[in-house]
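Dear colleagues,

As part of the handover before I leave the project, I'm documenting each prediction I ran so the next person doesn't have to rerun anything. This entry is a single chain, and its sequence is reproduced below.
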Amino acid sequence: MSSPSTIARELTVSRERSGLNRSQLAKLAGVPASTISRIEKGDVQPSTEMLNRVLAPLGRAASITPTSTPEASAAARAACDPSYPGDLDRTAQDLLGSWGRIGLIEGSIAALGKDRDVLYQASRLDSVAARQGAVRFAPRRDWIAAAEALERVSGLAWALTGGAAANTMVNVGGDEPQVFYVSDVALALDAGRLAALPSNAPGIRAWLVPFNGIWELGARTLSDGLNVADRFQIAVDCLSLGGAGPTQAEALLGAWV
Protein backbone atom coordinates (compact mmCIF):
# COMPACT_ATOMS: atom_id res chain seq x y z
CA MET A 1 0.00 0.00 0.00
CA SER A 2 1.15 3.57 -0.63
CA SER A 3 2.55 5.76 2.14
CA PRO A 4 0.18 7.86 4.30
CA SER A 5 1.38 11.04 2.56
CA THR A 6 0.64 9.63 -0.90
CA ILE A 7 -2.76 8.34 0.18
CA ALA A 8 -3.50 11.72 1.78
CA ARG A 9 -2.68 13.60 -1.41
CA GLU A 10 -4.60 11.24 -3.71
CA LEU A 11 -7.68 11.15 -1.49
CA THR A 12 -7.75 14.93 -1.19
CA VAL A 13 -7.40 15.41 -4.95
CA SER A 14 -10.08 12.79 -5.72
CA ARG A 15 -12.48 14.29 -3.18
CA GLU A 16 -12.01 17.85 -4.41
CA ARG A 17 -12.44 16.79 -8.04
CA SER A 18 -15.73 15.20 -7.05
CA GLY A 19 -16.92 18.50 -5.57
CA LEU A 20 -17.35 17.08 -2.08
CA ASN A 21 -16.25 18.48 1.25
CA ARG A 22 -14.98 16.18 4.00
CA SER A 23 -18.33 16.06 5.77
CA GLN A 24 -20.17 15.04 2.59
CA LEU A 25 -17.65 12.31 1.77
CA ALA A 26 -17.91 11.02 5.34
CA LYS A 27 -21.70 10.76 5.02
CA LEU A 28 -21.41 8.88 1.73
CA ALA A 29 -18.78 6.51 3.12
CA GLY A 30 -20.52 6.03 6.47
CA VAL A 31 -17.53 7.09 8.56
CA PRO A 32 -16.87 9.99 10.95
CA ALA A 33 -15.69 13.21 9.31
CA SER A 34 -12.66 13.03 11.61
CA THR A 35 -11.59 9.84 9.81
CA ILE A 36 -11.48 11.63 6.47
CA SER A 37 -9.60 14.52 8.07
CA ARG A 38 -6.96 12.27 9.65
CA ILE A 39 -6.38 10.34 6.43
CA GLU A 40 -6.06 13.53 4.37
CA LYS A 41 -3.60 14.98 6.89
CA GLY A 42 -1.47 11.85 6.63
CA ASP A 43 -1.87 11.17 10.34
CA VAL A 44 -2.90 7.52 9.86
CA GLN A 45 -2.20 4.55 7.60
CA PRO A 46 -5.73 3.34 6.76
CA SER A 47 -6.40 -0.33 6.20
CA THR A 48 -7.22 -1.44 2.66
CA GLU A 49 -10.79 -2.02 3.78
CA MET A 50 -11.11 1.50 5.20
CA LEU A 51 -9.42 3.08 2.19
CA ASN A 52 -11.76 1.29 -0.20
CA ARG A 53 -14.69 2.44 1.92
CA VAL A 54 -13.81 6.13 1.66
CA LEU A 55 -12.76 5.90 -1.98
CA ALA A 56 -15.86 4.05 -3.19
CA PRO A 57 -18.09 7.19 -3.31
CA LEU A 58 -15.39 8.81 -5.45
CA GLY A 59 -15.35 5.98 -7.99
CA ARG A 60 -11.93 4.81 -6.89
CA ALA A 61 -10.41 1.71 -5.31
CA ALA A 62 -7.39 1.30 -3.04
CA SER A 63 -5.12 1.57 -6.08
CA ILE A 64 -6.64 5.06 -6.71
CA THR A 65 -7.57 3.87 -10.21
CA PRO A 66 -10.94 4.71 -11.79
CA THR A 67 -13.77 2.23 -11.40
CA SER A 68 -17.08 1.78 -13.18
CA THR A 69 -20.47 1.31 -11.53
CA PRO A 70 -23.04 1.45 -14.36
CA GLU A 71 -25.88 1.73 -11.84
CA ALA A 72 -24.60 5.25 -11.07
CA SER A 73 -25.51 6.34 -14.59
CA ALA A 74 -28.93 4.73 -14.22
CA ALA A 75 -29.57 6.43 -10.87
CA ALA A 76 -28.46 9.86 -12.09
CA ARG A 77 -30.46 9.67 -15.30
CA ALA A 78 -33.60 8.57 -13.44
CA ALA A 79 -33.14 11.43 -10.96
CA CYS A 80 -32.79 14.00 -13.74
CA ASP A 81 -35.26 12.59 -16.25
CA PRO A 82 -38.72 11.31 -15.19
CA SER A 83 -38.99 9.55 -18.56
CA TYR A 84 -35.90 7.39 -17.98
CA PRO A 85 -36.95 4.03 -19.47
CA GLY A 86 -34.87 1.69 -17.32
CA ASP A 87 -35.32 0.00 -13.96
CA LEU A 88 -33.31 0.83 -10.86
CA ASP A 89 -31.78 -2.05 -8.95
CA ARG A 90 -30.76 -1.99 -5.29
CA THR A 91 -27.36 -0.46 -6.05
CA ALA A 92 -28.94 2.43 -7.96
CA GLN A 93 -31.50 2.99 -5.21
CA ASP A 94 -28.77 3.00 -2.57
CA LEU A 95 -26.88 5.61 -4.57
CA LEU A 96 -29.96 7.83 -4.70
CA GLY A 97 -30.21 7.45 -0.93
CA SER A 98 -26.57 8.39 -0.38
CA TRP A 99 -26.88 11.42 -2.68
CA GLY A 100 -29.97 12.42 -0.76
CA ARG A 101 -27.92 12.49 2.45
CA ILE A 102 -25.76 15.25 0.98
CA GLY A 103 -28.66 17.28 -0.37
CA LEU A 104 -28.55 16.31 -4.04
CA ILE A 105 -31.77 14.28 -4.13
CA GLU A 106 -35.25 15.10 -2.83
CA GLY A 107 -37.49 12.05 -2.79
CA SER A 108 -36.26 10.26 -5.87
CA ILE A 109 -35.45 13.23 -8.12
CA ALA A 110 -32.62 15.73 -8.29
CA ALA A 111 -33.06 18.63 -5.90
CA LEU A 112 -33.73 22.01 -7.51
CA GLY A 113 -30.62 23.16 -9.35
CA LYS A 114 -28.70 19.97 -8.53
CA ASP A 115 -29.01 18.09 -11.82
CA ARG A 116 -25.42 18.77 -12.84
CA ASP A 117 -24.11 17.79 -9.40
CA VAL A 118 -25.98 14.48 -9.57
CA LEU A 119 -24.65 13.76 -13.06
CA TYR A 120 -21.16 14.71 -11.91
CA GLN A 121 -21.31 12.23 -9.05
CA ALA A 122 -22.36 9.56 -11.54
CA SER A 123 -19.44 10.45 -13.81
CA ARG A 124 -16.99 9.83 -10.96
CA LEU A 125 -18.51 6.43 -10.24
CA ASP A 126 -18.97 5.29 -13.84
CA SER A 127 -15.76 6.22 -15.62
CA VAL A 128 -15.76 5.64 -19.38
CA ALA A 129 -12.11 4.55 -19.21
CA ALA A 130 -12.90 1.82 -16.67
CA ARG A 131 -16.05 0.31 -18.18
CA GLN A 132 -16.15 -3.46 -18.35
CA GLY A 133 -15.72 -4.76 -21.86
CA ALA A 134 -14.70 -1.38 -23.30
CA VAL A 135 -11.98 -1.56 -25.93
CA ARG A 136 -9.68 1.22 -27.07
CA PHE A 137 -9.23 1.50 -30.80
CA ALA A 138 -6.94 3.40 -33.14
CA PRO A 139 -8.87 6.63 -33.82
CA ARG A 140 -10.00 7.41 -37.34
CA ARG A 141 -9.40 10.83 -38.90
CA ASP A 142 -12.32 12.15 -36.83
CA TRP A 143 -15.45 10.79 -35.18
CA ILE A 144 -17.40 11.14 -38.43
CA ALA A 145 -15.05 8.71 -40.18
CA ALA A 146 -15.39 6.28 -37.26
CA ALA A 147 -19.20 6.59 -37.32
CA GLU A 148 -19.25 5.93 -41.05
CA ALA A 149 -17.21 2.77 -40.50
CA LEU A 150 -19.69 1.53 -37.89
CA GLU A 151 -22.71 2.43 -40.03
CA ARG A 152 -21.44 0.14 -42.78
CA VAL A 153 -21.46 -2.88 -40.43
CA SER A 154 -24.58 -4.97 -41.04
CA GLY A 155 -26.46 -5.95 -37.91
CA LEU A 156 -24.56 -3.56 -35.62
CA ALA A 157 -26.41 -1.08 -33.39
CA TRP A 158 -24.38 1.86 -32.16
CA ALA A 159 -24.62 5.33 -30.64
CA LEU A 160 -22.13 8.17 -30.35
CA THR A 161 -21.55 9.70 -26.91
CA GLY A 162 -19.23 12.17 -25.16
CA GLY A 163 -18.07 15.51 -26.51
CA ALA A 164 -18.61 14.63 -30.17
CA ALA A 165 -22.26 13.80 -29.49
CA ALA A 166 -22.74 16.92 -27.38
CA ASN A 167 -21.30 19.12 -30.10
CA THR A 168 -23.75 17.78 -32.66
CA MET A 169 -26.54 19.29 -30.54
CA VAL A 170 -24.91 22.32 -28.90
CA ASN A 171 -21.64 23.08 -30.63
CA VAL A 172 -19.27 24.63 -28.09
CA GLY A 173 -16.11 23.16 -29.60
CA GLY A 174 -13.37 21.46 -27.64
CA ASP A 175 -11.97 17.97 -27.94
CA GLU A 176 -14.18 15.24 -29.36
CA PRO A 177 -13.11 11.77 -28.17
CA GLN A 178 -14.34 8.97 -30.41
CA VAL A 179 -16.57 7.06 -27.99
CA PHE A 180 -19.31 4.75 -29.22
CA TYR A 181 -21.74 2.38 -27.54
CA VAL A 182 -22.02 -0.74 -29.70
CA SER A 183 -24.14 -3.88 -29.58
CA ASP A 184 -21.14 -6.09 -30.42
CA VAL A 185 -17.57 -4.92 -29.83
CA ALA A 186 -15.95 -7.79 -31.74
CA LEU A 187 -18.19 -7.21 -34.76
CA ALA A 188 -17.51 -3.47 -34.68
CA LEU A 189 -13.75 -4.06 -34.64
CA ASP A 190 -13.74 -6.76 -37.32
CA ALA A 191 -16.36 -5.63 -39.81
CA GLY A 192 -15.69 -1.96 -39.11
CA ARG A 193 -11.98 -2.52 -39.70
CA LEU A 194 -11.04 -0.77 -36.48
CA ALA A 195 -7.75 -1.69 -34.83
CA ALA A 196 -7.93 -2.59 -31.14
CA LEU A 197 -5.26 -1.10 -28.89
CA PRO A 198 -3.97 -2.09 -25.42
CA SER A 199 -6.13 -0.80 -22.57
CA ASN A 200 -3.19 1.25 -21.29
CA ALA A 201 -2.39 2.85 -24.65
CA PRO A 202 -1.21 6.38 -23.73
CA GLY A 203 -3.11 9.40 -24.97
CA ILE A 204 -5.75 7.39 -26.85
CA ARG A 205 -9.29 8.69 -26.32
CA ALA A 206 -11.27 6.32 -28.52
CA TRP A 207 -13.42 3.55 -27.07
CA LEU A 208 -15.98 1.01 -28.16
CA VAL A 209 -18.22 0.38 -25.14
CA PRO A 210 -20.58 -2.61 -25.16
CA PHE A 211 -24.31 -2.25 -24.59
CA ASN A 212 -25.23 -3.24 -21.04
CA GLY A 213 -28.91 -2.40 -20.71
CA ILE A 214 -28.19 1.04 -19.21
CA TRP A 215 -25.77 3.12 -21.26
CA GLU A 216 -27.57 2.62 -24.58
CA LEU A 217 -31.09 3.19 -23.22
CA GLY A 218 -32.78 6.18 -24.83
CA ALA A 219 -30.40 6.37 -27.80
CA ARG A 220 -31.97 8.02 -30.82
CA THR A 221 -31.31 8.87 -34.43
CA LEU A 222 -31.02 12.57 -35.34
CA SER A 223 -32.46 14.08 -38.50
CA ASP A 224 -29.10 13.70 -40.26
CA GLY A 225 -29.06 9.96 -39.54
CA LEU A 226 -26.51 10.11 -36.70
CA ASN A 227 -27.15 7.74 -33.80
CA VAL A 228 -26.52 9.41 -30.43
CA ALA A 229 -26.92 8.33 -26.82
CA ASP A 230 -29.48 9.87 -24.48
CA ARG A 231 -28.53 13.45 -23.60
CA PHE A 232 -28.17 12.74 -19.87
CA GLN A 233 -25.89 9.78 -20.60
CA ILE A 234 -23.90 12.00 -22.93
CA ALA A 235 -23.57 14.54 -20.12
CA VAL A 236 -22.32 11.87 -17.69
CA ASP A 237 -19.78 10.73 -20.26
CA CYS A 238 -18.61 14.27 -21.05
CA LEU A 239 -18.02 14.89 -17.34
CA SER A 240 -16.20 11.57 -17.03
CA LEU A 241 -13.88 12.25 -19.95
CA GLY A 242 -12.68 15.64 -18.69
CA GLY A 243 -10.97 18.10 -21.02
CA ALA A 244 -13.70 20.19 -22.64
CA GLY A 245 -16.26 17.67 -21.39
CA PRO A 246 -17.60 19.70 -18.45
CA THR A 247 -18.19 22.73 -20.71
CA GLN A 248 -19.88 20.54 -23.31
CA ALA A 249 -22.07 18.90 -20.65
CA GLU A 250 -23.04 22.30 -19.23
CA ALA A 251 -24.08 23.57 -22.65
CA LEU A 252 -25.98 20.37 -23.41
CA LEU A 253 -27.93 20.52 -20.15
CA GLY A 254 -28.56 24.24 -20.51
CA ALA A 255 -30.19 23.69 -23.89
CA TRP A 256 -32.99 21.77 -22.18
CA VAL A 257 -33.56 24.04 -19.16
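The first strand starts at residue 105 and ends at 106. The mean pLDDT is 91.

All the best with the project,
I.
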